[in-house]
Amino acid sequence: MTMIRDRLEAGVKRGGRMRKIGLIVLAAGLCLGPLAALAATQIYDARTKKWVDYDKRKARQYFARNKQVPEAFRRQVVPFRTAEPPGTIIIDGNQHFLYLVQPGGQAIRYGIGVGREGFGWAGIVRVGRTAEWPTWTPPPEMVARDPNAAKWAAGMPGGPDNPLGARALYLFEGENDTIYRIHGTVEPWTIGLDVSSGCIRMNNDDIIDLHSRVKIGAKVIVLMQGAALYKGV
Amino acid sequence: MPNWPSGQATANILKLSIAKKFGLDAEVRELGTISAFVGLDKGEVDIQPEVWRPNFEDLIKKYVTDKGAVVLSERAVPAWQGLCATPEAAAAGLKTIADLSDPAKTAVLDTDGDGRGEVWIGAPTWLSTGIERVRANSYGYAANLTLVEAEEDVAMAAVDAAVATARPMVFYCYAPHHVFELHKLTRIEEPPHDPAKWKIAPADDPLWVTKSSAATAWDTAHFHIAYGAAFGKKHPDIAKFLEQVDFSPEEVTAMSYALEVERQTPPDYAKKWIDGNAARVDGWAKQ
């Protein structure tokens, strides 16, 4: 019978690795897939004291009314007890939260938009590089089907209309770019929704804030779809 | 010393205590348990602070029982493993292993909308993960829960996030572990360990999980200090000292928390521990 410590001997306790490289390759360049939101999110309505579905239509209505996302998805400091060191990013796609661990049992929590089926993978990567007003290069399949994307086949310069938004954090496994990014968006109302096919999107103010705080090499933990063990917000 | 936090803290506490009480300098070096036993046998290593049973029963039989080259201290720290629930999971009625077989109760653990709850059973490379799968099959809760494997860091971050947002979660856990210091967790109750109900096929059989059954709690584990028999003869006072060391599970958890969560270095932690526990160390060294 094998029990606790032998697994630690194998050196697997720390530094877990992303498990599904194949998925990453498959999903390469799909971060900005067509918008087709599904209603997977709920938000708490303090007025009625009920959880309500938060879908694409409601998100558009809420944003049009308030010029901002619901409170749960706004940047805020929250209690967050963890063994992870300050500076670690924890991405909870199920709840549409990204945590930046802070000292003293706290984290800065940002609202995020994620892929229609979550991030598509789980594991531990790091911030390999960052960019301000990044260039967006549409993937070949998007170029093939979308004339607007075809226009930017050689790369769309960074700027206010660029779908990657104001900043991008490039996620690496070892020295290799996973092709996944945490980036800004020109569609801030999509925060809190499952909208793309893989990447993490944040509103531009938040990605600028996160970018200013994150160090190259920062650990990024992506919670497994179905392992985060909660649903909605 | 081992590569895990409590082993490193203990090694440094022993090093400083031996220097203080016996005037003997010790070098602290990281070694896996197998390498440490080889070193103890050859006289190249004198002490290994955490030797887990029954994990290393084969090594213990070879070097302790058969060769008599290594001595295990009589005292041991008990360890535990099983399943844990966050406060919200316990509040939702998930308290016993039988509760996990109730789809109405485990529905709260559903995170991906498929109607089945999820439970983390360990990292993909851990042998214990296979046994957790066996237990889930044997108890029956594999029928209504999705068994999730992921690296421990990912699972612990999921626990952190679940607690931060008051969401229910049930997951494999073991003690001593710093997660018990971080969060208020409830251990899922199980029938006591019954060796007659643990039939674990050899792990080198590709079908060992399906051929096994285990429908009771894990047996209690222990870990001991080990030292070279020759070292014990040469330094009987230190051997006696090692036999007196009596860390509790709570102290081992605190070591793990200090190193893993508070990021204290093992030498710094050891110095503070000894400064705060001088009488305890004196008692261990009393001949």
Automatic annotation (TrEMBL), chain B:
Stored Pfam families: OpuAC
InterPro entries in the record: ABC_Gly_betaine_transp_sub-bd (IPR007210)
Membrane spanning residue stretches: none
Domain ABC-type glycine betaine transport system substrate-binding, residue spans: 2-275
Gene3D superfamilies tied to this protein: Glycine betaine-binding periplasmic protein, domain 2, Periplasmic binding protein-like II
Name this polypeptide is given: Amino acid-binding protein
Phylogenetic classification of the source organism: Bacteria, Pseudomonadati, Pseudomonadota, Alphaproteobacteria, Hyphomicrobiales
